[in-house]
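Justification of computing resources. Each target in the renewal requires a structure prediction run like the one illustrated here; the chain below, 242 residues long, is used simply to show the kind of job we budget for.
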Amino acid sequence: MVDSPVPIIFVGSQRSADRPSSDNAMNAVCAASAATSALGEVAVVMHATTNDDQCSIHRGTRVRKMHSSRRDAFRSIGIDPIGSVAYPSRKVTLNDRAVRREKKDPGIRDTLEDHCALIQFYPGMSPALLEAYGGYKGLVLAGTGLGHVSTALIPALRDLIENGTLVVMTTQCMQGRVCDRVYDTGRDLLSAGVIEGADMLPEVALVKMMWVLGNERDPEKAGHLMQNDLKGECNRRSTHGL
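Resulting structure tokens:
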């Protein structure tokens, strides 16, 4: 996790430089513009539309690639983009949600716990699959709907947790958040010690878990950190329209 006083921009292209429709040059120009703006956080800058008129600035913890080849493949999930870069004018516009630059030294704590994993639940999943993760420090589950797996998996999850594995539940849905208090299965998961992952994207939850467990050895404190918003990865409430 980086406490960054300046922007850290990730950029790429959907189409290679040898194609007339390549987006590499525009994305690079827009990314450079965002990197010299007032922004002070990690972001992804890519085409906002299929036209060459604007790039979106996406928060790094709330972005996902939503198409295999479209130039506007990257989208913010659960929030709007935190800004935009007009092209070819290179004008950067940041909204109120975007973190601004600060005059301070960067703080870098880059210790990660490698023994973490992300598993996507599917109907008929065998509890034996979970047993293979015995000894892992952390496990992120991408459950269905509000954050569910089959009841057959709950004893295996309880065993993992009792043996020291931190287990966090996320959802496979693109929008909304985990709430394991609505149905019996969810309440059983909570009783077993599974932690609700709010509206974190599963892959973001995995990276966060690797960082949390690499920097916090107390299991209770690590669990609390997984539920706290550290870098905009957890929204306090979900917006139905996004």
